[in-house]
Amino acid sequence: MNVDLLTLFPGMFQGAFSESILKHAADRGLLDVRIHNIRDFASDKHRVTDDYPYGGGVGMVMKVEPLAACIEYVRKDRPASTVILTTPRGKTLNQGMARELAQEDGLIIICGRYEGIDERVRDLFVDREISIGDFVLTGGEFASLVLVDAVTRLIPGVLGSDESAEDDSFSNGLLEYPQYTRPPEFRGLAVPPVLLSGNNREIARWRRRESLRRTFLVRPELLEAACLTAEDASYVKELRSCGGNAD
Ligand code: ADE
Prior knowledge:
This protein is of the alpha/beta class. It has helices spanning 20-27, 64-77, 95-101, 119-125, 141-152, 200-218, 221-225, 230-242, and strands at residues 2-7, 32-37, 50-51, 61-62, 82-92, 106-111, 128-131, 185-186, 189-190. It folds into 2 domains: 2-152, SPOUT methyltransferase, trefoil knot domain (Alpha/beta knot, 3-Layer(aba) Sandwich), CATH 3.40.1280.10; 185-242, Trp Operon Repressor, Chain A (Orthogonal Bundle).
């Protein structure tokens, strides 16, 4: 997948793509990230990229001309890429959206800054506006990193089979069950005996129930949309009747 990041602060991306799974994906040719400095596309002497808002008000607005020039330059190489603007005004990112974006040929991601960007950038170029949550960051750079990370790990071949995305929280609409590794006891806390039993059927049942319990306690609204079996539904009923303390 091709990812083009359009930013006023290219230094913010240093490091992120030279570590761990993102680096591994790039080394294996599964991810090609290019970072473009929007300021390089400002044509005036002072390379101005922002200006006062028409109509007054606080803060500055990102100007349309440098952004338009930058997007058009990038799109010449990447005509099939989807243009995304990271902004708190967008649709909230979730696992389904990440899965959809992992199918795209490429992503051109505009990192918004200041109080906003000239609306004509949206009108002319932007296919999708994406927020990473109901809070406001200083700009779209970290949001873009979150987005690229969530999407990259879903590109076929990026995760090894032993780190598959299938058991992730949200992949089945529920939060993930608890995990343990050695030692079997630490500071008086023992690993649940079922996990040491070797009984795969019982282990799968315990994990499913723990997923349901966690989801019930932390994100009960997810249960409404999750795909539940009759056995799940009866366990959820039990959880409801005892406030999450069912066996
Ligand atoms: N820019 C500022 N806040 C943001 C958010 N919550 N999501 C995406 N981009 C942003």
